[in-house]
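ok so for the tutorial part 2 we go from a plain amino acid sequence to predicted structure tokens. step 1 is just haveing the sequence, like this:
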Amino acid sequence: MLDWINQGIVTWGYVGIVLLMLLENIFPPIPSEVIMPLAGFTIAQGELNFFGVILSGVMGSILGALPWYYLGKNWGEKKLRRWIELRGQWIAISTDDLERSQQWFRRYGNLVVFLGRVIPGIRTYISIPAGLQNMPLLPFLIYSTFGTIVWISLLTFVGYWLGDNYTLVKQFTTPISVIVFVILAVGITIWFYKRKKR
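step 2 — the prediction. this is what the tokens look like for a chain of 198 residues:
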């Protein structure tokens, strides 16, 4: 996969970065933790410039987030509410829980989207609840873009700084992704347990 990513950036330049980051958001197994540090390395080689790489990475990432946003938006609250009414007891979720989550997302949704775009492991999927909760498109794009700029800039700078060793970025971000998933899984498990017990 590394050779394929490298070839895409070398051959297509900024357009290649846009396409790779778009695919990374639609098919998460393609890691941004490799794409952007490699792009940062090309900056160090004098082949691309920093601003162009950041802009390309952000554009591709935001374009890739839109299908997930519209998936949540088109599935919609009515279908979700109907599903919860029929099968919600299987996972201890009620329509009252749905209402509370909507109130919570309306209150903190902007921050959730911003931070979600910076956290490995959930940055791709944060677009689904945003669409599901009918977050307006403009705020979604604004906060997604700000969060994405932080993530893309960090990966690009680290790749530039590491030079030939840019692949080390993946080694550091993979444990972070695992930790995030474990924390989420434990939190959800505790919540389900408390709901069942109650």
